[in-house]
Amino acid sequence: MKAVVFRDPSTPVELTEVELAAPGAGEVRVKIAAAGVCGSDLHVRRGEWDAPAPLVMGHEGSGVITAIGEGVTNLAIGDHVVLSWVAPCNECRYCRSGHEARCQAVATVVAPGGVLHDGTSRLSANGEMLHHYLGVSSFAEEAVVPASGAIKVRDDAPLDVIALVGCAVATGVGAVTNTAAVEPGATVAVIGCGGVGLSVVQGAKLAGAKRIIAIDVLKEKTALAAQLGATDEILVGDGDPVAALFAMEPDGVDYAFDAIGRTVTTEQAIKMLGLGGAAVVVGLPPTGSSASFDPLVLAEADQRILGSNYGSVRPSIDIPALVDRYMDGQLQLDPLVSARRPLAEAGEALAELESGAALRTLLIP
Questions:
Q1: Are 350 and 37 contacting, i.e. CB atoms less than 8 angstroms apart?
Q2: 59 is catalytic
Q3: Structural element, H or E, at residue 224
Q4: Which end of the chain is more exposed for a tag (fewer CB within 10 A), N or C?
Q5: What residues does 191 pair with on adjacent strands?
Q6: Shortest CA distance to 145 belongs to which of 256, 45, 247, 31?
Q7: DSSP 8-state assignment for residue 194
Q8: For residues 178, 169, 35 and 192, what is the CA-based torsion angle, rounded to 10 degrees?
Q9: Least confident residue range of 50-54, 215-219, 223-227, 256-260
């Protein structure tokens, strides 16, 4: 098959011929319908995260099951699936307590990573082992993934668009509904209106937030956020976004979501909080980043700083529910798609994301 391979930050990603082995026990093979290009892919491309190389890129995707490994009983050939980069073991203490996003087995796949749950890879090229990315590697014509990471969804949902549910939408909506548990009537700020941030906006609307303040450097992104449920917009180029927020909401907000993941945006989110508020770090920064805050202010104001990994989702429950919400008209996914490109244009798609021009590009094998 063809797949997009990353070797090092100084070398362009390359669409090349790759061998994909048959699924092992507890695994399935999926014909990829679409793969979303995410900020996490960009971190790898820039060399900002430790990732084993060479690897086949991509962790957001959807497709159709074409083969099933030994012991898989809950999926069948022909099933439509959304790929979840959290493929829970369902055995560790976190899985047993309903916190699959913290799965210990997934942690070993993600870091140091590059393999599936049995510690080996299904990918190779001319005898050279290639690593999986986050147990998915969706920038390819096909993928072999753990069965628990192939989430069966309804057949009538458009396979290309629902690829976004596998990361951006689950992460953004889940950060609101699961990690923060935003209450009806709450005030919310969202820093960054890319694919994840716009999903946060929609999650806040679903949660019944009374005020949703969208913050970005691009007017077209805050305008789109307004279409998707934001009540107010702050354009960062107009001045200090923290001061602008307090001009709108003098007591600060109940929840501030950093959907970018830079030191400055995390610190801004903390500063935007009112009494009892929670800052939620959703966007992921480069390895080794650090942010500062005043712990006395945090304690005296009864505030919290929350990390949100994958929206704290339970993939087998939340992903089909999010697809249902899209099909029922409660979630809008189509406006999040900036473009559709062939796999050969993965490099261009990553460059567009880096420039800030793109929300989510779908790579279509």
A1: yes
A2: yes
A3: helix 219-227
A4: N
A5: 215, 258
A6: 31
A7: S
A8: -110
A9: 50-54
Q: Cα separation of 50 and 71, whole Å? A: 33
What's the confidence (pLDDT) of residue 111? Answer: 62
Q: What structural domains does the chain harbor?
A: 2-152+333-364 (3.90.180.10), 171-309 (3.40.50.720)
Could you confirm whether 103 is annotated as catalytic?
no
Mean pLDDT of the chain, nearest integer: 95
Residue 304 CA, distance from chain mean position = 23
Give bridge partners of residue 62 from the DSSP assignment: 34, 82
Residue 19 has pLDDT above 70, yes or no: yes
Sequence-ordered strand ranges (E) for the chain: 2-6, 14-17, 19-20, 27-36, 55-56, 60-68, 80-83, 123-125, 128-130, 142-146, 150-152, 187-191, 211-216, 232-235, 253-258, 273-281, 304-307, 337-342, 360-364
Q: Which residue has the tokens 């549910």?
A: 165
> Which one of 89, 95, 167, 193 is the catalytic residue?
167
Higher pLDDT, 81 or 114: 81
CA distance 168 to 322: 11
Closest CA to 64 of 80, 75, 76: 80
Measure the CA–CA gap between 58 and 187, rounded to whole angstroms: 34
Which residues are 36's β-sheet partners? 60, 362
Distance (Å, rounded) from C-alpha 277 to C-alpha 264? Answer: 18
Q: What is the pTM of this model?
A: 0.94
> 153 pLDDT exceeds 70?
yes
**In this structure, which amino acid lies at residue 345?**
E
Q: Write the DSSP symbol of residue 247.
A: H
Q: Are 333 and 6 in contact (CB under 8 A)?
A: no
Per DSSP, 213 falls in state E
Contacts with 321 (C-beta within 8 Å, 6 or more apart), sequence order: none
**The two structure tokens encoding residue 77:** 């050939």
**131 catalytically annotated:** no
Token couple for 137: 């590697």
| Residue 95 is a catalytic residue | no
Provide the pLDDT for residue 112: 65
40 is a catalytic site residue: yes
